[in-house]
């Protein structure tokens, strides 16, 4: 099936991706939870449309340019949340323009971001929905206390050009209890000030099948679930059969009986480890480790005879599928009844 594809190449089994999408949507529906998938994993409007077809209410993007590319790629992607603090005149100008095309929301965790958003949208005579981002244990962005969350909600509510949209968080694995406690208290504080909290958004693929443990959340934003990867198999969130994205590579050298070199290095597999040892899983060969990457070379080792030949092709489940997607201009999409077809990745490299 893949004989005519030049390597290294990224393959996507669209049947597996669809199954992954439907599996979580069914779970979310059973718990009355809205799904707003993060498209950072696939960056493909066509797969976002599949997520809408399954029941998603909209999409999540991380950067303004990423959202622009997705919206340009499909007229159906008309409800977008950008989960990032947006700063700078150029980005704010682009955000105002995007808000004229779709239902748009963003997040903020500080007054500087809020004041910039307010100035831009008030000047344009438009209104932007803004969530307060909350830190529920991941220690990335987000206000750290419920009092701070309430104070920012008040500021957004009073700001010209803005509308308070609710609370948002990206919790650590195992953080459902903290999400429930933090959001319950923050919601109560905000409502005591006479401000409604329309939505509470949480996310993270590793805990997606435990989302019901934080019933305060009204929507969930899984990303990697659409493809899955080695990190999620290691967490027992998925199996190898659930991994829709693989890297096709060719053995270019077998310099020793226990060692081989492939044409996929860090520019394809990426250097993300996510706490794992090695740089991916070779399908059908659990005895092989990918122990070293340079930019265009991957080194494979085996405790015994590696039993590979020059020219042989292998498929690898990467540690982190999301970053692999952003490394290539196109992916080869195939299925049981679909020959491989090269799909350009419109949101690839959209990082501003």
Task: Describe this protein's structure.
Helices cover 30% and strands 25% of the residues. The protein is elongated, with a radius of gyration of 22 Å. The chain has 10 helices and 17 strands. The mean pLDDT is 98. Strands 1, 10, 11, 12, 13, 14, 15, 16 and 17 form a 9-stranded mixed beta sheet that branches. It has an 8-stranded parallel beta sheet with strand order 2-9-8-7-6-5-4-3. The protein has 2 domains: 15-226, TIM Barrel; 231-344, Lyase, Ornithine Decarboxylase, Chain A, domain 1 (Beta Barrel), CATH 2.40.37. It is an alpha/beta fold.
Helix content: 25-40%
- Classified by CATH, the class of the largest domain is Alpha Beta
> How many strands appear in the DSSP assignment?
17
Question: What profile does the largest beta sheet have?
Answer: 9 strands, mixed
Number of domain modules: 2
| Low-confidence runs | none
The CATH homologous superfamily of the largest domain corresponds to Alanine racemase
Secondary-structure-based class equals alpha/beta
Give me the number of helical elements: 10
**What Rg do the Cα atoms give?**
22 Å
The span between the termini is 37 Å
Instruction: Predict the CATH topology of the largest domain.
Output: TIM Barrel
CATH architecture of the largest domain: Alpha-Beta Barrel
């Amino acid at each position: 099936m893949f004989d005519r594809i030049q390597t290294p190449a990224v393959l996507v089994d669209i049947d597996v991706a669809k199954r992954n999408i439907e599996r979580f949507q069914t779970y979310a529906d059973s718990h009355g939870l809205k799904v707003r998938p993060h498209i950072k994993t696939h960056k493909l409007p066509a797969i976002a449309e599949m997520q809408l077809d399954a029941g998603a209410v909209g999409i999540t993007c991380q950067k303004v340019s990423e959202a622009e590319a997705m919206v340009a790629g499909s007229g159906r992607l008309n409800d977008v949340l950008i989960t990032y603090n947006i700063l700078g005149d150029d980005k704010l100008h682009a955000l105002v323009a995007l808000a004229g095309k779709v239902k748009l929301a963003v997040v903020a965790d500080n007054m500087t971001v809020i004041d910039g958003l307010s100035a831009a949208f008030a000047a344009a005579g438009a209104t932007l929905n803004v969530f307060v981002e909350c830190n529920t244990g991941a220690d990335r962005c987000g206000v750290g206390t419920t009092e701070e969350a309430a104070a920012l909600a008040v500021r957004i509510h009073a700001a010209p050009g803005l509308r308070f949209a609710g609370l948002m968080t990206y919790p650590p694995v195992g953080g459902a209890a903290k999400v429930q406690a933090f959001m319950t208290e923050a919601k109560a504080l905000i409502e005591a000030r006479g401000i409604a909290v329309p939505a509470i958004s949480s996310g993270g693929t590793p805990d997606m099948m435990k989302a019901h443990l934080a019933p305060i959340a009204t929507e969930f934003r899984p990303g990697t679930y659409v493809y899955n990867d080695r990190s999620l198999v290691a967490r027992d969130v998925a199996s190898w059969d659930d991994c829709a994205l693989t890297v096709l590579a060719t053995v270019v050298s077998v310099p020793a009986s226990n060692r081989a070199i492939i044409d996929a290095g860090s520019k394809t597999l990426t250097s993300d480890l996510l706490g794992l040892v090695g740089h991916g899983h070779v399908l059908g060969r659990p005895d092989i480790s990918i122990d070293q990457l340079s930019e265009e070379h991957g080194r494979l080792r085996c405790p015994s005879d590696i039993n590979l030949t020059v020219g042989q092709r292998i498929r690898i489940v990467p540690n982190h599928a999301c970053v692999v997607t952003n490394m290539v201009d196109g992916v080869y999409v195939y299925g049981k009844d679909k020959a491989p077809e090269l799909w350009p990745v419109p949101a690839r490299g959209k990082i501003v």
